[in-house]
Structures are given as C-alpha cells and as structure tokens.
C-alpha cells in the first residue's frame, strides 16, 4: 500500500525540483545577460573616452586600441561569475547538510548510542529496532542484531525493503523509530558514491587524516586503483573532478571503498559496496577486502549474495 504514497510524493518533489531549476536557470540567464551588457557598454565607453584623449594628444594609438580589447578580454573571467552565484544556494544547502551530518555524528557518540551500553565483548547491537520515515509505514520492524569483533554479516533485500535506511540507522546517522542501537565507532560506505573535487590524497584522508602515503597506496592496491594513479605524474596528488582527472562509475566506487578501508574504525558498514564495479574486478578485490577487514565487525548490505563480501551468515529482509 506504500507504492501510491511514494509515487505521489516523488511526483510532488519532481514538480518542485523542476520549478526550482527553471527559476535558477532564469536567474542565471539574466545575470549572464547583465554581465555581457556591462562588459560591452564598458568597452564602448572606453573606446569613446580613448578617442577623446587621442584627439587631445594624451593617448597613443596603440593604447587606444588596447583599451576595449582588454575590457573584452575580461569577459571570459566575468562570464563564470553568474554560474557561480547561481550555485550559491546549492553550496550553502550542501554546507547545512554537512553540518547536520556532523551533528548526527556527535549525537551518535552520545550516551544514548554509546559503546558504554554495549554488552562486554560486543561491537554493535540493534535491539528490536523499527526503521522508516516519519508519517509513513515502517520499512522494517522488530530487527535485532548483535555482533562481536571479527563477525561479518551480510544483509540481503530487494529495492524498497529498507536496506539503506537500516544501514543509516546502524551507522548512527538516523535514529530508529523504536528500539535502541549501540555501537563502537564505525566507518560507513553509503549507497551514494561521493568523490570531492580535490586530490586523491585529500579524498582518502577524509577517513583517516593521519594516514601515510604507504597506507593510501596499500588500500588503492586492494581495490586495484594503485596502477591507475601511479601512471599519473602527480600520483596521490592527482586532481579529481571536472577540472582534473575524471573517474568512471566503477573507479569512483572503488575509490570511496578504499577511503572506508583506510579508516581504523572497529565497525565497518558497507551499503552496496560493488555498485558499478564489473564482475571480474569484484571477484578479484572482494577476498582482498575481506582479508584487510579481518578482525573488525563488518555489516555488508546488497541486493543479492553476489554483491556482498564473504559472510559468516546472511540475513534476508522482507
């Protein structure tokens, strides 16, 4: 019975997003038109003023020609400003989300979900939790999971069964509707692949700021990306993103997977770790990842057993 509600909600969001995008495009267009008009008017004014000064003998011919050309050259610089201002709202919204995530991380470390309430010898515990979205039917009810260091558990479920919401809850980024969750510090690979426009090193050090170059090359070897970046003259300093080295979907996924592996957290949660990674590569790197994470508590979620790391046991949702 949730299909109709979700469809209506998605349609409303789609209409709102289309309306917002049209408003942003219109505003950006006006800004671009205004900047071009300003540059052209300034060039004409410089040419007119230059002629007046040339007639008075205060300006040489070459300088007269250079004035409007110099102003028109500035157009390439100013042309980027409207688009940057058009993205200001999105940038500020992203900053608010990052601040919110930081607050959630601190909340996850608070006494309500701290390791202090874990039974001795355990690393993660979910006690009869219910997860879902406010105002909607629960996605998952009465879920209980208790893990020790060294345990690896796989969780399998179809789309919409609540895997990602459960992963958010186990990682402490979302509160359960009912029940309690307690855990040691954890590293979390979300379903979304997020690579920042920065160097390879900066992207990896988000998980462990104190990691050395040797550690970073090691995790890149595990996910078979070391050779990819070793071929670049900058190595770990290779710039990623629209202004630098572009990664394929599978390469980006393996990079964020390497970032999680670099973390020293005793609990690791992986939501669809091999999204976009071809089967042959997945088959090669999966055993290496399992060996690297040996001794830690690992929760791996996916659509099927083939999308998981080797697990001690597999739970099926739905």
TrEMBL record:
- Chief location: membrane
Spell out the subcellular localization from the entry. Cell membrane
User: What InterPro entries does the record tag this protein with?
Assistant: AAA+_ATPase, ABC1_TM_sf, ABC_transporter-like_ATP-bd, ABC_transporter-like_CS, P-loop_NTPase, Type_1_exporter
A GO cellular component annotated for this chain's UniProt record is: plasma membrane
How does the protein associate with the membrane?
Multi-pass membrane protein
Does the record carry Coiled coil as a key word?
no
- Where the record annotates domain ABC transporter, the positions are 124-318
- Report whether ATP-binding shows up as a keyword of the record: yes
Ranges annotated as spanning the membrane: 33-51, 63-81
Gene Ontology MF, one: ATP hydrolysis activity
Q: Which UniProt keywords apply?
A: ATP-binding, Membrane, Nucleotide-binding, Transmembrane, Transmembrane helix
A Pfam family hit? ABC_tran
Annotated protein name in UniProt: Thiol reductant ABC exporter subunit CydC
- Recall the taxonomic lineage recorded for the source organism: Bacteria, Pseudomonadati, Pseudomonadota, Gammaproteobacteria, Pseudomonadales
């Amino acid at each position: 019975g949730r299909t109709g509600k979700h469809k209506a909600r998605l349609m409303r969001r789609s209409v709102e997003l289309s309306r917002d995008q049209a408003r942003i495009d219109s505003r950006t267009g006006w800004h671009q038109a205004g900047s071009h008009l300003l540059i052209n008017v300034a060039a004409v004014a410089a040419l007119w003023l230059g002629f007046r000064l040339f007639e008075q003998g205060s300006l040489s011919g070459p300088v007269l020609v250079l004035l409007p050309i110099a102003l028109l050259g500035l157009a390439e610089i100013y042309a980027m400003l409207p688009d940057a201002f058009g993205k200001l709202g999105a940038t500020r919204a992203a900053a608010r989300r990052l601040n919110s995530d930081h607050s959630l991380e601190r909340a996850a470390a608070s006494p309500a979900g701290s390791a202090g309430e874990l039974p001795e010898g355990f690393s993660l515990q979910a006690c009869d939790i219910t997860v879902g979205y406010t105002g909607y039917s629960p996605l998952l009810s009465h879920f209980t999971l208790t893990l020790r260091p060294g345990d690896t558990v796989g969780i399998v479920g179809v789309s919409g069964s609540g895997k990602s919401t459960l992963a958010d809850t186990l990682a402490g980024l979302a509160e359960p509707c009912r029940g309690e969750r307690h855990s040691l510090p954890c590293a979390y690979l979300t379903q979304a692949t997020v690579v920042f426009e920065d160097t390879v090193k900066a992207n990896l050090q988000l998980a462990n700021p104190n990691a050395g170059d040797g550690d970073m090359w090691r995790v890149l070897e595990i996910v078979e990306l070391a050779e990819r970046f070793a071929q670049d003259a900058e190595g770990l300093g290779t710039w990623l993103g629209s202004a630098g080295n572009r990664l394929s979907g599978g390469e980006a996924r393996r990079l964020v997977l390497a970032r999680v592996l670099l973390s020293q957290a005793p609990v690791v949660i992986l939501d669809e770790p091999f999204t976009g990674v071809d089967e042959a590569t997945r088959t090669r790197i999966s055993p290496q990842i399992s060996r690297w994470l040996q001794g830690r508590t690992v929760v791996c979620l996916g659509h099927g057993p083939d999308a998981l790391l080797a697990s001690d046991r597999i739970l099926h949702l739905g």
